[in-house]
Amino acid sequence: YMSKLLEVGDILLKRHFGQLSLVGEIDRVTNTIAFVGNSKYKREMSQTKTVTTIPRENYSSACIFVAEESDMVELRKQNLISFVVRFDYSKLSYEKMVEIRDIIKRPE
Fold first, then answer.
1. pLDDT > 90: what percent of the chain?
2. What is the distance between the alpha carbons of residues 72 and 1, in angstroms, rounded to a whole number?
3. For residue 107, is it left (φ>0), alpha (ψ between -120 and 50) or beta?
4. pTM value?
5. By the 8 A CB rule, do 34 and 43 touch?
6. Where are the beta strands (DSSP E) in 8-89?
7. Which of 20, 32, 51, 58 is 20 to 30 A from 100, comparing alpha carbons?
8. Could you tell me if 72 and 11 are in contact, meaning their C-beta atoms sit under 8 angstroms apart?
């Protein structure tokens, strides 16, 4: 196993109870620590490619990791679903609501 080091520009995501959230982009590194703003992480990733916070959160059920393109697609889709669910449809005209319904009912 070759240990992988976090680098400036890496995007960190957190998965907690199945939900993804953006931690941020690594903006600076030392030999042993990577920084996202004021948050610190061990620069060396584990064999499972997860990232450890400093100080370590022993009992956290969240998993922090470096984002790959498929993770970013999943995050964008999750954020879009959240937006659609929370949108106030009462602001739309009847015609717009019919259009939305027709789009949703359209087979893929």
1. 77
2. 26
3. beta
4. 0.79
5. yes
6. 11-16, 19-25, 28-29, 33-36, 39-42, 50-51, 53-54, 63-66
7. 20
8. yes
Answer for the pair 34, 6: CB distance below 8 angstroms, yes or no.
yes
Q: Is 37 left (phi over 0), alpha (psi -120 to 50) or beta?
A: left
The pLDDT profile of the chain, 108 residues, written as one tens digit per residue, is: 567 899 999 999 999 998 999 999 999 999 999 999 999 999 998 877 889 999 887 777 889 999 999 999 999 999 999 999 999 999 999 999 999 999 988 876
Token couple for 44: 């060396």
Beta-sheet pairing, 63-66 with 11-16: antiparallel
Per-residue tokens: 88: 């106030």
Residues present in the chain in total: 108
